[in-house]
Amino acid sequence: MASPPSDSTDGALPERLARAIALAGPIPVSQFMAAANAHYYATRDPFGSAGDFVTAPEISQMFGELVGAALADGWARAGGGAAHYVELGPGRGTLAIDALRVMARAGLSPAVHLIETSPVLRAAQRERLPQAEWHNTLDSLPADGPLLIVANEFFDALPVRQIVRAADGWRERRVACQDVLFLPVVGGDTLDAIIPETLRDAAPGSVVETSPAAVAAMRVLARRVAAQGGMMLAIDYGYDGPAVGDTLQAVHAHGYANPFEAPGERDLTAHVDFGTLAAAARAEGAVTHGPVAQGGWLTALGIEARARALAAAHRDRGAEIEAARVRLTAPRQMGTLFKVLAVVAPHWPVPAGFAA
Ligand code: SAH
Asked: How many CB atoms are closer than 10 A to CB 237?
């Protein structure tokens, strides 16, 4: 992964960013977002009702269980054997715990590899997944055997560049600093050449986002999957781009906040351009399926039956289990905005939940 700036240099993050901007001028949105998120994740556990946001695996064990079932199914139909479980940005490790439990029942006990930059979250993961091995970069992932890769709400945390249509062409959006306030400004460099032709005539003020870090990560992983066998499930809120749209947002205490305020104290995210990520994966020789909507995918994998079985086993939790199922699948909740992209080796079967 792109290594975030070290947090050990002197001064709080806003002061350091202000100093960098004073010295060299406004910085690209991507640089601001990378520094803000590195600090944010390095200094807290953001999940849960007391934190800033709740993710699907923290809503219900059903989510990780169905991810595990989909991986075990693909693995079994590809012939089984030794395999590696790889998770990007595993948070508290909840998804991995639920997925590995289901995989074990299917006879699959993969080695566990986690990609995580935050020392706070690494410590939380170590408590629950003592068998895991942590990696600082994707390059050190094992080169032998199929990789079963999961990324839930990982790609949305990677920095995006924002390119803005100005009156006379496309320019990088940068972050300036006025006294203690950070604010977006339009940079001087003309970037028309990197805007897809279909979008180039968009109205002034339009924004196109690109995530070089996300594309680079996808390329490495897709190349590995194509060469070693395996499959990857990338789950996130996003769209089938490239497209016009400013999706940079800050999430704080379960609400939206100004992304340029209080860098490092809020989770900065951008919607994931699944179309571009899928094209990058195919360019590396992998096969892609989707993206499909999370709600339909979970339903195809059997979330309704799983909810019924869970409710039967925990009679006092029936309403809570049904509410979680609805939250994960309903179009107005997480069912449609969240999407699932599968990246598989050419000789692997179409994963469960995707049309053949
Ligand atoms: N997948 C978890 C957590 C999602 S939050 C869940 O669904 O609950 C994003 C996760 O990605 C956190 O664990 C965060 O620390 C990690 N992360 C963010 N940027 C990263 C980077 N550049 N490299 C590795 N991990 C990163």
From this structure: 20
Q: pLDDT tens digits, residue range 160-215?
A: 999 999 999 999 999 999 988 999 999 988 999 999 999 999 999 999 999 999 99
Domain coordinates in residue numbering, the chain: 13-24+40-156+216-344
Determine if ligand 1 sits within 6 Å of the CB of residue 40: no
Q: Which atom of ligand 1 is nearest to the CA of 42?
A: 15
Closest-CA residue, ligand 1 atom 16, reads 89
For residue 205, report the distance from its CA to the centre of ligand 1, in Å.
31
57 lines ligand 1 (CB under 6 A): yes
Q: Does ligand 1 have an atom closer than 6 angstroms to the CB of 91? A: yes
Ligand 1, atom 26, residue with closest C-alpha: 89
Ramachandran assignment for 59, one of left (phi > 0), alpha (psi -120 to 50 degrees), beta (any other): alpha
Beta-strand ranges (E) seen in the chain are 27-28, 84-88, 111-115, 133-135, 147-152, 161-166, 169-178, 181-190, 207-210, 230-239, 249-252, 255-257, 267-269, 272-273, 287-293, 338-344
- Pick the residue whose CA is nearest to atom 2 on ligand 1: 91
**Nearest residue (CA) to ligand 1, atom 24:** 116
The top-level CATH class assigned to 13-24+40-156+216-344 is alpha beta
The bridge status of strand 230-239 relative to strand 147-152 is: parallel
Q: Please give the structure tokens belonging to residue 355.
A: 């049309």
Q: What is the pTM of this model?
A: 0.96
